[in-house]
């Protein structure tokens, strides 16, 4: 057994990674600095303090070493490139006394175009940042940054990997971790919107894997929530399947806990084997405001000294049985939108006469008919989404895929402006979207009336079937009404989803055209 002096000499002669591991074993306080750009800052996340990859990484550290005190310092600067981090290092990082530094840069170094001329400087800056971290006595993890383009071997992530290999520093490959699964066909940053909750969760898992490599503890476990797509009633029980795989060479005795859902039974897992557990939760008896709701799911599996994380989101969305065209039900509004439906401009205290709407739906074998009767006391013609108009969201993926938090060619957002006089209005979409051409060939009829307008759109079911590759009896759906009051949009009324429906179809509701669901039923997904 080493005495205090011998242990001190071992620590002084150790590599930064070994020093960090010894510090963890001794239970000493640990300062972690996550240094990066707007991704590290959690730009466009609803709550970066809990949903960013750095915050999730800190949660994992505390779960793995619960007796230790970890101080997380997220230092993400919007628009920052690696050179700014080098220039600001002395003032920014050493005062925090870090034992571990995570370095995440690249998107702003690349800039517009391919950024090839910036690559040598980027690589040199990363190498300098690693040297500075080691000189400060800190271990280091390098991030291969997520890049908009779809290929996995784009130059900047490849450059970060090369720098990491040359310096002997583990690389958390965010680019590959996000792109190797399903993701948005428009790239990782559609409309310059940064990675959202599910991409940050993937990044946190990848960063955790890299930490294991740094500590000489290669990941022996992998865990994940299996997808769920089902129909349930409010207040009902929902099964959450969990899969765990033993990646190591030794049998592992597993323990697991799902955040807020209790412990799962202990289980022994042989090398190379996988096991499934079934956790359960109870759905809320009502949806807040009648809108789709979502909650994060977090899993921690322990075995052989390692902790394997998994993340998912549970969404409960209303199901609407569409009445038959010509029936009595078709003449009654499915929903009335008003100030309670406002998701843009919530701070404005506006009367219903400023903007309100009634939504009518009906279907037969040939068409799905949408009618929106809008009350608006000040109509402009600059067009949705920044002017007055109606937005429509469709998810035509199959039952097992509908609600995944990214767009595919079977997911579309359509927009209809208000014309100066009554008449046909062609469908349009945002620039980066490429929905099937048939959708963009549709037109809505818009009638200008006193105090507002009426929009009617027939969606041909054969066209929906063609896009989906099957007979569409159910689809994801939402509708929004934009109100500009003579200038740029001030408010937006949304039926069920979020203000980011155009990049995230997770919270769209479900329309049933032929196969009615029980009254009040919910479409529940876990992705």
Biggest sheet: strands, sense, closure?
12 strands, mixed
Rounded mean pLDDT is 93
Helix content: 10-25%
Oligomeric description of these chains? single chain
Taken from the alpha-carbon principal axes, the silhouette is globular
Low-confidence stretches: 5-11
> Total number of β-strand segments?
26
* Share in β-strands: 25-35%
The end-to-end span amounts to: 49 Å
Query: How many separate helices?
Result: 13
Helix/strand-derived class?
alpha+beta
What is the rounded Rg? Answer: 26 Å
Helix and strand arrangement:
Blueprint: H1 4-13, H2 16-26, E1 30-36, H3 38-41, H4 48-51, H5 53-64, E2 70-76, H6 82-92, E3 100-104, H7 107-110, H8 119-135, E4 139-144, H9 155-167, E5 171-173, H10 174-179, H11 197-214, E6 221-225, E7 228-232, E8 237-246, E9 252-258, E10 262-269, E11 274-282, E12 293-303, E13 306-321, E14 335-337, E15 342-344, E16 355-363, E17 367-376, E18 389-395, E19 411-417, E20 423-426, H12 437-440, E21 443-449, E22 452-460, H13 461-468, E23 474-483, E24 491-494, E25 509-512, E26 522-526
Parallel strand pairs: 1-2, 1-3, 3-4, 4-5, 13-25
Antiparallel strand pairs: 6-8, 7-26, 8-11, 9-10, 9-12, 12-13, 13-26, 14-16, 15-24, 16-17, 17-22, 18-19, 18-23, 20-21, 21-22, 23-24, 23-25
Helix pairs in contact: 5-11, 6-8, 8-9
């Amino acid at each position: 057994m080493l005495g205090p002096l011998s242990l001190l000499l071992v620590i002084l002669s150790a590599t930064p990674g070994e020093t960090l591991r010894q510090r963890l074993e001794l239970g000493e306080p640990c300062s972690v600095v996550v240094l990066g750009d707007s991704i590290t800052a959690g730009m466009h996340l609803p709550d970066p303090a809990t949903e960013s990859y750095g915050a999730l990484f800190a949660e994992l550290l505390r779960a793995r070493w619960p007796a230790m005190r970890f101080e997380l310092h997220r230092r993400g600067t919007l628009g920052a490139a690696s050179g700014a981090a080098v220039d600001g290092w002395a003032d920014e990082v050493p005062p925090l006394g870090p034992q571990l530094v995570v370095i995440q840069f690249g998107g702003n170094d690349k800039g517009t175009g391919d950024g090839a001329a910036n690559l040598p400087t980027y690589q040199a800056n990363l190498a300098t940042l690693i040297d500075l971290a080691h000189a400060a006595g800190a271990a280091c993890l390098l991030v291969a940054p997520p890049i908009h383009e779809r290929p996995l071997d784009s130059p900047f992530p490849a450059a970060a990997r090369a720098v990491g290999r040359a310096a002997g520093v583990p690389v958390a490959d965010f680019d590959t971790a996000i792109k190797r699964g399903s993701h948005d066909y428009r790239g990782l940053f559609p409309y310059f919107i940064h990675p959202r909750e599910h991409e940050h969760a993937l990044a946190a898992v990848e960063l955790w894997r890299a930490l294991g490599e740094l500590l000489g503890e290669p990941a022996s476990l992998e865990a994940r929530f299996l997808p769920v797509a089902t129909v349930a009633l409010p207040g009902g029980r929902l099964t959450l399947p969990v899969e765990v795989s033993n990646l190591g060479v030794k049998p592992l005795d597993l323990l697991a806990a799902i955040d807020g859902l209790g412990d799962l039974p202990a289980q022994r897992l042989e090398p190379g084997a996988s096991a499934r557990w079934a956790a359960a939760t109870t759905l809320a008896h009502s949806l807040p405001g009648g809108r789709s709701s979502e909650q994060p799911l977090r899993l921690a599996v322990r075995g052989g000294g390692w902790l394997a994380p998994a993340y998912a989101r549970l969404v409960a969305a209303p199901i609407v049985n569409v009445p038959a065209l010509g029936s009595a039900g078709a003449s009654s509004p499915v929903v009335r939108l008003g100030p309670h439906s406002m998701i843009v401009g919530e701070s404005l205290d506006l009367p219903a006469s400023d903007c309100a709407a009634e939504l009518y739906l009906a279907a037969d074998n040939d068409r799905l008919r949408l009618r929106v009767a809008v009350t608006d006391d000040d109509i402009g013609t600059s067009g949705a989404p920044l002017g007055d108009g109606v937005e429509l969201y469709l998810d035509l993926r199959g039952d097992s895929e509908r609600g995944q938090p990214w767009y595919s060619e079977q997911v579309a957002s359509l927009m209809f402006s208000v014309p100066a006089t009554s008449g046909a209005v062609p469908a349009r979409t945002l620039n980066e979207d490429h929905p099937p051409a048939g959708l963009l060939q549709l037109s809505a009829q818009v009638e200008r009336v006193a105090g507002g307008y009426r929009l009617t759109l027939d969606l041909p079911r054969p066209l929906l079937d063609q896009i989906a590759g099957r007979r569409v009896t159910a689809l994801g759906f939402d509708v929004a009404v934009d109100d500009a009051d003579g200038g740029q949009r001030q408010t937006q009324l949304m039926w069920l989803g979020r203000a980011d429906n155009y990049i995230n179809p997770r919270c769209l509701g479900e329309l049933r055209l032929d196969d009615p669901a029980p009254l009040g039923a919910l479409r529940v997904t876990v992705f």
